[in-house]
Every structure is written in C-alpha cells, then in structure tokens.
Amino acid sequence: MNTFKHLLTTALIAASATSFAQSTTITVTTDSTSSAQIIRTRTRNYSRVTSDFSIYIGLNNFGGSLPASYELSPIGSRFVALSWQKRIPIAVSGSTKLRLITGPEVAWNNFMFQDRNMLVEQNGQVVVEPASVDLHRSKLVTTQLNLPLMLNISFRSGFSWSLGAYAGMRLDSYTKVKPQGGSPVRTHNSYNLNPIRWGLTTELGFRGDAKLFFRYEPNSPFRTGLGPDASVWAVGIKL
C-alpha cells in the first residue's frame, strides 16, 4: 500500500511540475510518519518568442562639416522613440544566447537651433538664417516610422549586446519657432527631407536594467543638393 501511495505521489508531481512558475516545495508523509521534501524548480523557457515595449530617450545632433548657423543646442536637441519589439530566439540552449530583435517604432528627432537661427525654405533650398527678433526656441522636428533589425547576444554574466540597422519612412516634419514673450508658431513642411532614412544602431545592457544605445545615420536627412550634407547621431538610454 505504501509503495502504491509513493508511486501515485511521484506521478502527480511529475505531471504538475511544468505548471509551477517558481520553486515549489511539496511534503510527502507516509504511514510511518516519516516525511520527505521534494523540490521542483521550473527553468525559464528561452525558446519562445517574447514581446516588450521600450522607450528611447536621448540626445541627437548633426555631424559633418556644416555652416555655423546649423549649430544645435547640445541639451535641447533630443531624441525620443516608442518601440514595440519581438525577441526571436535563434540559439538559446547554451550559456550564450542569440536572438533576433525587430518590431516597429515611432521616433522623433528634435533639432534645436542656437541663438536666433531658424530653418526656412527659400527657392527650393533649405537654409538657416537669423530671425529679426530674439527667439526663445527654434527647432526642426521630424517624425519617422522605423523598423529596426538587431542581433542580440546575452551572456551568462547578465550582459547583453545588440547590433543592427534600421530603416524608416518620414511621417511628419515641422519647425517650431517661439519669439521671446510671444506665442509659438508651428509650420509643417517637408523641408526637403528624404522620405526614407536608414542608420546603424547598437545597444548595451545588463540583465533587465536600462540599456545604453547609440545610433548613426551616415547619409544626410536632406535631399542631395537641396539641403546640408549632414549625418545624424543619437545617444541615450533605453527603458
């Protein structure tokens, strides 16, 4: 009878082990009042596709040889993105795990100009010229729908590194100029911006904590010959 009870208990434990999300302790008591503790720990399932939502917050700026009028405020020029990502396992059986990360994101580049400079379009060309009044704020904002594709490597130590590229299409762009003591004026226009932009991206993190990211677009966001030949970079934190 005792043997049957032990076999039945063992079968029940084996059948229910996969339903435990954390370590579970089960006490089995026999007729002889002896007891035994059986501990079953369910390991995390790394082989399934997971989803997450992330927020990128950082700074961005132009690169390259640009006129002095294109000088941007280093703190006021910000980058923000909202990202919905899928983490697709490729090789996750060992201590070093490899995944593919992709998913749509909406990104905003805020280019804040220094002093009284503002971006305008003249005779089909995009130029930066000084305003006739003092300005509290003058910036160019671009909104873009991106699709990144990154290869992620995570190590047993907890560190992870992602490297890849992204491409996106322009959804909107506008300038926002606010005179000192006045109301802001927002002007929507294409400003000779390329409808499609692409860049390289990398991310470095530790376990589930925030990650550092860096992005670089080698090509100018403006159409060739219709705006400055500038690269774009962004650096910040991924939450």
UniProtKB/TrEMBL annotation:
Keywords: Signal. Residues 1-21 form the signal peptide. InterPro entries: Beta-barrel_OMP_2. Residues 110-214 form the Outer membrane protein beta-barrel domain. It comes from the Bacteria. This is Outer membrane protein beta-barrel domain-containing protein. It comes from Spirosoma telluris. The lineage of its organism: Bacteria, Pseudomonadati, Bacteroidota, Cytophagia, Cytophagales.
